[in-house]
Every structure is written in structure tokens, then in C-alpha cells.
Here is the input.
Amino acid sequence: MIRSVKLSDASDICRIYNEYILKTVITFEENPLTVKEMELRIENIIQSYPWLVYEENENVIGYTYAGKWKERSAYRFSVETGIYIDSKHIGRGIGTKLKSELLTILRERSIHSIICGIALPNPASIALCEKLGFIKVGQLKEVGFKHNKWVDVGYWELIL
Here is the structure.
């Protein structure tokens, strides 16, 4: 079931996200988050943007959200999105369902440009974005350093 996030989801979201922090370069964060830190992030984002979770058997197993792309006012119709799926549930189509629902909400809110920054390599995230119509618009070389290696970031964009 897809629904809007609740603060009580912060523990499950931390469990999912902290695995990506510790084991991958998919996120450039390097220190695990506490539940309180995640609650603050949720509160901050949902003031202006959607955050959705995928719940199964009363457990959150995936989530996606949109957030501000840049601070300047002319960027107000552009957002950046993120999506994270519990590693035990990857490949079940949950990401497609979540991201599709997020895109529907963003269309209703008159968002014009949706941007996905993807640490490379990440074939699963690239496939998801391109399946939903995103087009690669650029790549920055070696902008992140995590797990003792330089990481490129590609950018995909969808104009609604």
C-alpha cells in the first residue's frame, strides 16, 4: 500500500536508508542517521513537498520524496527526488509504483521539472528513471568520495 509518510515511519525509514549509507555509494552521506534526525527531515520536507512510503504487513519497505532543487526563487517549479527500497524487496516493482505515484502528485502541484541525481554506477536507478521517461542530461565526474573511491553523479530529468 502506498500512503503519505508519518513521523512514526522514521524508524523503518532509518533502517532502510542507513543500510545504503553504510554499504553503498548510492547516497553520499557517510554517517547513519538517528530516528530523531529522520523525523526532523520528514517534518521539513512534508511542509512543502510529498513524501510517500510503501507499506506491507505494517512495515515500510520503501519510500520516495521530492524536495527543493535549489534555493533561488526561479527554481520553484523544479524538484529533486529520491527513492530507497529495502534491499530485501528490490526487483518487485515497488520503486516503479512509488515513483509513478510521486509523479502524479507532482503533476497535480504544477511542478515542471523533476531531477534525479544518481551516483554511478547504479543500473537499477537508471532503469527506473528511464522507464518513467527521464532523460540523462549530464554527468559530473568524481564529485563524491566515499568508501575510498571517487564517484561520478549523473543527472536525469523529466519535464512534465
Notes: The helical segments are 10-23, 35-46, 94-108, 123-131. The radius of gyration is 15 Å.
